[in-house]
């Protein structure tokens, strides 16, 4: 141990605090997850896999994957563009945009969903106009995508922005004086400098896009086999007392989340090692 | 290439960074832009590079107006203050960057790019570092990478923004001489921006002194010392001490200060004198000559060259003086001394300048 005795707390204090933190972690985070997997497999693999093979479940999985496949790329581009604008350029309204990016974090997901119902629902602002043209947004795929887009927008922007701001603009300026065009500067300098943070943001964005419940619940309409995503399907199964099925689907969703977390951790280790290679004498 | 700057103005909100800057660089010249921080020198460099716009004025490079020409089309090599190396690229890739982003027709092939990069790394004497990343090399090596990268585009003009700021004092002197040698070999028009007068005086053929957004004097180092154009230049160059006095009938007196009068060809009135450390001589005395001691040595210091100097405070101004030969043994803290002035730059209230000389040659000089 390289701890200095002058500032270290007594051993029992440290043990107590560490123990308490661990206990809370186990009780509140690990135990529920373990319960999900235990419940899913309580009546054996057969029941669990049968629940997953149910057509409604398969349709929910397909829908969730489709929504994620649309929202993640859109938010990747949108989030990156927003972070790039804020970090590398000066324009009026820059602070406002920075605040707006965080809006979905501070607004309840239910409200985010409700907004789209109020806008595009039958009684909504654009409802009659949309109905006249036979365009269905709420209670259909577009609504799910919009709600998910809104809720997951901050993830990419918020992971990339601090790094871009810390790196400043001098490398971009150097690239410009060396003859690079705007696109070349972005492609060869800006993007590679944030690639790992970007990937990390995309993973988080994807995890949330697949797991989002509140906003999606409002705009979905819960039509089985049509507008039911995986999290919504879990709730339906649970409410219908199909516990094995509910937990099996929940376990699948939890696995997705765990895989994301593992990928993100591996990524951080990888980049940490690369950054740690430096001599550390950069002023 | 020649560079001509005329009446350049740049404002940031209410603050004026450049207030009508004009100067011209000759082909192959090594010039320095010297000024305290906030004098607008970095802004000027950024405008030359095309990274910043200006409200008024004109920049011409090789006779061609740079209005509307973006940074990427100017072909100006820039070594940035903290080098701004591409952190995710190896040193080889950093240097190759300028070649790789060229339009296809002008882009050299792989072998040619590699040959050019290795040649440049040889030139800056770091061929062994090509596979390293910027954060794996020292500050001095990073500076060489930045220089090689800037030279790779075969620039018309080289701009250096405080390039020695991040180096420690020991390396700095060597790197300076090496850089000057490199310039003499390449013959590239070079503009160095710095707040360090020694750096500017040692490196540059001519030094442009900037004061509050203007170039107040642009002359060879020796001329800046011999004939400063403004009180600011006189005070800024050569660590001169500034003292107020009064001219009467061609003689400058420093009121009640224990300084000898000087002959100065200025009209009657108040005047400001600038005394360089080397031009003031302190003659330490065994005892104070009758009455209150005229001046007392506050402390003694040794210069980097090994010379002992006396430091005194006169009328709130700190003055450094050489020790008169023969009186060195008596020099000590608190020792009384008589001051002699070999010469000073004096500016009259009306703006006139004169080189002041002693009324009679002091015997100890």
UniProtKB/TrEMBL annotation, chain A:
<feature type="transmembrane region" description="Helical">
    <location>
        <begin position="135"/>
        <end position="157"/>
    </location>
</feature>
<feature type="domain" description="ABC transmembrane type-1">
    <location>
        <begin position="61"/>
        <end position="262"/>
    </location>
</feature>
<keyword id="KW-1133">Transmembrane helix</keyword>
<dbReference type="InterPro" id="IPR011866">
    <property type="entry name" value="CysW_permease"/>
</dbReference>
<dbReference type="Pfam" id="PF00528">
    <property type="entry name" value="BPD_transp_1"/>
</dbReference>
<dbReference type="InterPro" id="IPR005667">
    <property type="entry name" value="Sulph_transpt2"/>
</dbReference>
<protein>
    <submittedName>
        <fullName>Sulfate ABC transporter permease subunit CysW</fullName>
    </submittedName>
</protein>
<comment type="function">
    <text>Part of the ABC transporter complex CysAWTP (TC 3.A.1.6.1) involved in sulfate/thiosulfate import. Probably responsible for the translocation of the substrate across the membrane.</text>
</comment>
<keyword id="KW-0472">Membrane</keyword>
<feature type="transmembrane region" description="Helical">
    <location>
        <begin position="62"/>
        <end position="87"/>
    </location>
</feature>
<keyword id="KW-0812">Transmembrane</keyword>
<feature type="transmembrane region" description="Helical">
    <location>
        <begin position="243"/>
        <end position="263"/>
    </location>
</feature>
<dbReference type="InterPro" id="IPR000515">
    <property type="entry name" value="MetI-like"/>
</dbReference>
<feature type="transmembrane region" description="Helical">
    <location>
        <begin position="99"/>
        <end position="123"/>
    </location>
</feature>
<keyword id="KW-0813">Transport</keyword>
<keyword id="KW-0764">Sulfate transport</keyword>
<comment type="subunit">
    <text>The complex is composed of two ATP-binding proteins (CysA), two transmembrane proteins (CysT and CysW) and a solute-binding protein (CysP).</text>
</comment>
<dbReference type="InterPro" id="IPR035906">
    <property type="entry name" value="MetI-like_sf"/>
</dbReference>
<dbReference type="GO" id="GO:0015419">
    <property type="term" value="F:ABC-type sulfate transporter activity"/>
</dbReference>
<dbReference type="GO" id="GO:0005886">
    <property type="term" value="C:plasma membrane"/>
</dbReference>
UniProtKB/TrEMBL annotation, chain B:
<keyword id="KW-0067">ATP-binding</keyword>
<dbReference type="InterPro" id="IPR003439">
    <property type="entry name" value="ABC_transporter-like_ATP-bd"/>
</dbReference>
<keyword id="KW-0813">Transport</keyword>
<dbReference type="GO" id="GO:0016887">
    <property type="term" value="F:ATP hydrolysis activity"/>
</dbReference>
<keyword id="KW-0547">Nucleotide-binding</keyword>
<feature type="domain" description="ABC transporter">
    <location>
        <begin position="3"/>
        <end position="237"/>
    </location>
</feature>
<dbReference type="InterPro" id="IPR027417">
    <property type="entry name" value="P-loop_NTPase"/>
</dbReference>
<protein>
    <submittedName>
        <fullName>Sulfate ABC transporter ATP-binding protein</fullName>
    </submittedName>
</protein>
<dbReference type="InterPro" id="IPR017871">
    <property type="entry name" value="ABC_transporter-like_CS"/>
</dbReference>
<dbReference type="InterPro" id="IPR050093">
    <property type="entry name" value="ABC_SmlMolc_Importer"/>
</dbReference>
<dbReference type="Pfam" id="PF00005">
    <property type="entry name" value="ABC_tran"/>
</dbReference>
<dbReference type="GO" id="GO:0015697">
    <property type="term" value="P:quaternary ammonium group transport"/>
</dbReference>
<dbReference type="InterPro" id="IPR003593">
    <property type="entry name" value="AAA+_ATPase"/>
</dbReference>
<dbReference type="GO" id="GO:0005524">
    <property type="term" value="F:ATP binding"/>
</dbReference>
